Amino acid sequence: MATIYDRGAPGRRAASTPSPKRGADELMALIPEDARRDKLPHLPQVSQPELVRHYTALSRLNYGVDSGFYPLGSCTMKYNPKLNEDLARLPGFAGLHPGLSAERSQGALRALWELGEMLKRIAGMPAITLQPAAGAHGELTGMLLLKKYFQERGEYPARHKVLLPDSAHGTNPASAAMVGFKVVSLPSTSRGTVDLEALNKALDNEVAGIMLTVPNTLGIFEDEIAEITRLVHTAGGLTYFDGANLNSFLGRALPGEMGADIFHFNLHKTFSTPHGGGGPGAGPLAVSDTLAPYLPLPDVVLEGEEYRLSWDRSQSIGRVHPYHGNFLVSLRALAYILLLGDEGLKEVSAGAVLAANYLRAKLEKVFQLPYAGLCKHEFVLSGQGLGDVRTVDIAKRLMDYGFHPPTVYFPLIVKEALMVEPTETEPLEILDAFVEAMIRIADEAREQPDTVKQAPHTTPVRRLNEAQAARQPVLRLP
Amino acid sequence: MGEYIPHTPEDIRHMLEAIGVSDIQDLFTDITEELRHEGPTTGLPSRDEAWVRNYVQRMADSSTGTELVPFLGGGLYDHYSPSVVGHILSRGELFTAYTPYQAELSQGTLTWMFEFQTMICELTGMDVANSSMYDGATALAEAVLCAHRATKGTTVLVPRALSPWVRAVVDTYCWGAGIKVKEVPYGEDGRMQVDDIPEGTCGLIAAQPNYFGCIEDLRGLKEQLGKALFIVSVNPVALAVLEAPGKFGADIVVGEGQPLGIPFGFGGPLLGLFAAREEHLRRMPGRVSGRTVDAEGNEGYVMALQTREQHIRREKATSNICTNSALCALAATVYLAAQGPEGLRDVALASMERAHELAKRLEDLPGYSLAFGGPYFNEFILRCPDAEGTARKLEQAGIAVLPPSALEPTGVEGAIGVALTERRTDEELDLFVSVLEGGN
Ligand SMILES: Cc1ncc(COP(=O)(O)O)c(C=O)c1O
User: What atom of ligand 1 comes closest to residue A213's alpha carbon?
Assistant: First the structure.
């Protein structure tokens, strides 16, 4: 694939910059000789048309939600409303420096405050911070709160263990470890839910808390969630809910009422902000009254008609973000909530769960579904049972049918996992076409397995060799 | 709201039937009754698009800070972002995609990531770079965690002349990981004064330029460190004219990438840069694109070295980061490609020139002086007879600066911070000077 360095010619430029008045040598003399750069950095030299064509060409090698169905489980790849892109580009927000006074930032502070209020209601929890820049950052913040809480009570490091179901997302254990917690894995039952007996056994006075994904990464709602949180609380621990899967119960149940002490949102999932090719996202964190005193600072508060930053929280863990988190992402989420309203939020969860169960009902006839029954926003098939065709092959073959593959090989408790999350924004015809493609791939796996194993055939490149990239990493141009 | 959800009543009936239930409610029976929430949550009605646009537009209009000319820096700078940047970012194929887990459908993302990594390595003088962190502050904090893991040292040396916003984040992460933070003072020239490196130091941080805009002398620091890592936090635009930290033996170079064509956005999303020497590659956090070949031998790109990452390594991962700041990294890639080597140098030199021009004029005013004698790039600290009053008068005249309160955490009293970019015009400089002359 040609890179931008392969385009252009020496001396070309795609941007016009006011030239300095004085010559480069004279200005460079303002820099002490030893700190002065003696050679210009090697950057591309292209004209504007070349630049635009290059990145337009790259965009055509890519697949986004705007291109087609993207059932990447756990990622909630729903449609990203165009309105919100316009709003995030309003100069009154995009051009606002975070170092300006609160007086000069009223509109932005208001947006933060309003989103915070809405998210607290959606979580059913009394306090929130919008600083975390992604879900994992919210998890890290939550773990910091956990440490602070127990430290203040004189129970840290005695309580230094965090319990994690074996179906948990990788960021959960990684976040706990960054704060020095010891991760203890909990086995799941044959139904895919937390094993209460194992939980009871694990709960001792060294446990700081549990991290749960609700519904879990199999797409299954823990029907004993209230009992789980009660057990943890009785044992003196706190409960962290990973809210990556909120799309499935938006407006229909409140984490606060399930006994959550900490709950992170993924605005880039549930609240439709675009994933940006990997980011940015936002991971606001709602907490119970118990943990509110430790939240990051500052807080946006409303006094009379004025929004203000409050630093009034002596036990705060401090900042986790230099400013107010990913503000322009928060703004998009606010616009989404404003447009949908309560009724719309409920339609989101209805639509997401309906589409997922529809696909499940169709696909369980053809593929193994290790954890059967009603699912929420997603379900996890296994690619086993198709001879020597593996899940990776199915995923690659789906590309030939014009679809982005589901999440594969996660959660780890399902062998050859295919995690399908259709979201609420796909038309029925697309869901049907996906089912059709999956059935055809299952047939192909039996009748012409090589076609599947050598897929994809129609993409800009054929199957890429990941092993070679790991063995001999080439991570930049020479 | 129907505009985002395409299911018609007929579709819904059809799907319910296929599932074998009669009502949407039947899909939620796994949520026990006492947990089911009926009634309002947000209390908001549904609205149409025009209503939402007006509502949010009014909010934007009430943020009057954008009416001020930003002589305000402190880590984020008002460089011009060429139109092409925004236009390329608006390609749906790019911004509505996610992490390129499926390489064959993500060659666009993986290719620009590879370009970005190359550009960041070029600027920093490092061997490898990742494809982004959330922002410069968390990138620096993660660099400290990296140094902690690499050396087992439990103290990090942090310059006092570091942005308090960044410092606060580093402090939080260090507290979480059990790392002690020890300050390195600055001298009268505003530059850091490193004397001894205590036993158990995992890393030394230098900011280039530092929070006061001063250009640090990075020579000889690495040599004093023993096995501790040398971490340099940079402004990438300054690196067009400042020597790459790699030349001074830096182990890790991080930075805030916002100056590379990314709007202020009230402080987010930003762009964390993270680059390192080859030997630290397997300790590096974040996504990395690598070049490889496909089944027919054609060149292509994949996410490389995933065995460092949380989705494989879980609690033993080099970081918990998953979603990053990819779209901002794309903006920086396009920005750097648009500027090219000479454009970027012009941006840096013009910004520096403007800053020096204004500083010289202000220094001539009675009562005003530069707080530090050291060399500086595009930002300086101005001591004022009445700093609060000066900031207020400037604001009344339509100019924003870094207020005294933003300098106090670094031990600077009675001063304001002034930053310039290539965008500041002669008229704006004249206005600034005239306010301080009292002629306004
Ligand atoms: C279940 C779950 N938890 C946590 C995360 C991490 O969120 P983020 O990528 O925003 O950091 C993800 C996202 O991929 C997830 O699916």
Answer: 1
